[in-house]
């Protein structure tokens, strides 16, 4: 069968491949410590579940407006705008079945084939996949390790911008490396966007998934609202990964196109799920226990990873990922290949994790090895137990 050639450019979220390998190993009776997938094993707040059930009972099971029900768009406009010090109109909100669809639809809206789009690497693999699938040139920019985490290589970003550069994807509070921009770094990205007339996708999936400090949005910087689309998701804050509910908060012209794409792609986001989202925004008190539990897990994982010989990682203020440098640990065990090291760790200890290779092609000059540990789907006692086994194996 001859399939469309563009499918050759379509990537995937490779963390799911690690899940399959872990499940296969577990099927043989081995205990698995799942640090590989950024899913959340905590319950969705009760008021959200109750609102969904009530909506189903009330018959909210049919079609609804493609851009979202008015009540949810209004609540999102107030919540997103209020937390960012911005005024956002409900007409600028386009509800989506999760945050991920915003990426592909935004790319379809602003990019022509052959246009260049800057994206972070390491970064969420769907950026690169969607840029290339739709015929764009995916141009990756890198991060520089620092004592407090990672910083964008701004000099490299400047050097990558050409007359064909159309847009930049900016993921502050970043997956997989948990990088958080300083105000100066964010201002520099905003300055480049305005100087070169770039559209910006601000992936703010983890905007409220933080344990200290206050998040800020590049969209709130003077001159940026009219060129920035914010990606918002209910998945993290409310532990709603499988509910598939999110939105784009976009300049009006872009929002209108995203709404049309919704009608073409899925007609609408599930009606009763949207009413559940309204309930969450009107009363978000159930989010605090989720965040507090994730902070306990972060602290447990950070302490346990840094206790392993050859591991080193800073403590991030947000997200639910740790991205330790494992170069010295690999050398200690005699490994020079990340996939082989990860597989050996799984089989020796049951600890399953993703590597840097799951988040983009390594860039020239990379000479250190990294792994990503997600702690959103594993309890603090299991974190200590699993990483204790990893420590014993590494140090044997």
Produce the secondary structure layout.
Layout lengths: L14 H12 L6 E2 L11 H12 L12 H15 L8 E4 L3 H11 L5 E5 L4 H9 L3 E5 L1 E4 L2 E4 L1 H7 L4 E6 L12 H13 L3 E5 L24 E6 L12 E4 L2 H14 L5 H12 L4 H20 L14 E2 L4 H7 L4 H12 L1 E2 L1 E2 L15 E4 L5 H16 L1
Parallel strand pairs: 1-12, 3-4, 3-7, 7-8, 8-9
Antiparallel strand pairs: 2-10, 5-6, 9-10, 11-14, 13-14
Helix pairs in contact: 2-9, 3-9, 4-5, 4-8, 10-13
CATH architectural name of the largest domain = 3-Layer(aba) Sandwich
Task: Report the top-level CATH class of the largest domain.
Answer: Alpha Beta
What is the distance, rounded to the nearest whole angstrom, between the alpha carbons of the first and last residues?
Answer: 52 Å
Domain unit count: 2
- By secondary-structure content and strand pairing, the structural class works out as alpha/beta
Q: Might you state the CATH topology name of the largest domain?
A: Aspartate Aminotransferase, domain 2
Shape: globular
CATH superfamily heading of the largest domain:
Type I PLP-dependent aspartate aminotransferase-like (Major domain)
The total beta strand count reads 14
Helix-strand string: HEHHEHEHEEEHEHEEEHHHEHHEEEH
Major sheet summary line: 7 strands, mixed
Q: Could you list the spans in which at least 5 consecutive residues all have pLDDT below 50? A: none
Beta-strand percentage range: 5-15%
Query: Helical content, roughly?
Result: 40-55%
Mean pLDDT: 96
Number of helices: 13
